[in-house]
Amino acid sequence: MIDPSAVRPSPRQLAWQRQELTAFVHFGPNTFTDLEWGTGVDDPAVFDPSALDCTQWVAALVSAGFKSVILTAKHHDGFCLWPSKYLPHTVAASPYRGDVVAELSAACQAGGLGFGVYLSPADLYQEKAPGGYYGNGSPAVASQIGEFSYVVDDYNRFYLQQLHELLTSYGPIAEVWLDGANPTSSAQSYAYDAWFDLIRRLAPDATIAIGGPDVRWVGNEDGFARETEWSVVPFVDGRMVAAQTAASVAGPDELAQADELRWYPAEVDVSIRPGWFYHASEDASVKSLPELLDIYRKSVGRNAVLLLNIPPDRRGLFADPDVEALAAFGAAVREYYDTAVARPGEVNVLDLREDITAGQQVESFAVDGFVDGAWTEIARGTTIGHRRLLPLSTRIHVDDVRVRILATRAEAAVSLAVHFDPLLS
After folding, report:
1. Cβ contact 389:337 at 8 Å
2. What's the angle, vertex CA 393, arms to CA 388 and CA 397, rounded to 5?
3. Over the stretch 141-169, which tens digit does the pLDDT of each residue have?
4. Is the pLDDT of residue 326 over 90?
């Protein structure tokens, strides 16, 4: 069997994991039509933000501790938030006539945030528009994309052209996000190898997420990773052994089937509201601080990166309930989770970290607390990875704590801290 203890993250994967918090911004015609998935034939005239201010977005995200943000430059409806020269269905045909991608990129650079782009592979506009490319059955031919040549069909040439625009005009790009959802009815294959090659050439430090080679989808949109979340994932014939939605993607059964192992960490995507786009009817349904902290513990605290969506409203601003929730979340993380409780003290969350530059090794562990003059086991867990936040069943007063590694693939360097979260039920 291939040795999983020998698998290591790339420098770009390490940098990505250490961010812990990434923001998602879903914005476009759906914001104004009150839809979640657009039709592809929405009139660009509906896109008319009255007070768009990307610096407001960035300020709110920085206050909450986010390290980068990903914008839906093109969602499934095919409408582009930048004035792409390859189609008319863009902001250039809207009353706004600005360039949202450029504005957010500039705001991120000024505010110290990484900037990423979401470019939907599915495209309802290209499927439905006269002469559209999506699913048109065109043959693959040699196509020049900037200084590079790829043998692709019409739609994949168009997609590469848009990637080239984004990667050469709005950098630096920290992450390129590919959505696996497909609301179209046409059969269209994707030239993933060409897409990945172009991204690597033009943005070598950018992670390619969700279907890409760097980052995988955790398998749900509810805000949690698995209690046992491995970053070393088995593949067979170039595909993951288990479905991304499976209860286990890298356990002993999956490892036994592998002909290849990859460092393939999980990203947890969830929205701060019930929907991904802004809907005024959801203003009272923004997630509460206890909910957000629970998501934090079950994503960042389970060896994943949290990708939290905050959708701008029709003004082009984060709405007040969202801004307030972000500010409270950031303050709570800083107070409860960025600083360890001095011992002795009352604690209810354990914080374990593994040095993943040497791989992910720990298979199980136990933590003991020195309580009333004796060592007592207070918790057990499986994987650690970059970070494991383990809530205790009850608050306890400990004079000291220690970690015992019960099973490991190879030698591991593990640190342990303790926290007190007064909002933890």
Report:
1. yes
2. 90
3. 999 999 999 999 999 999 999 999 999 99
4. yes
Model pLDDT for residues 387-401, shown as the tens digit of each residue: 999 999 999 999 999
Q: What is the CA radius of gyration of the chain?
A: 23
Q: What's the rounded mean pLDDT across residues 370-394?
A: 97
Separation CA 113–CA 96 (nearest Å): 25
Please report, rounded to a whole number, the percentage of residues in the chain having pLDDT higher than 90.
95
Q: CA-based angle 25:26:30, to the nearest 5?
A: 155
The residue count of the chain comes to: 425
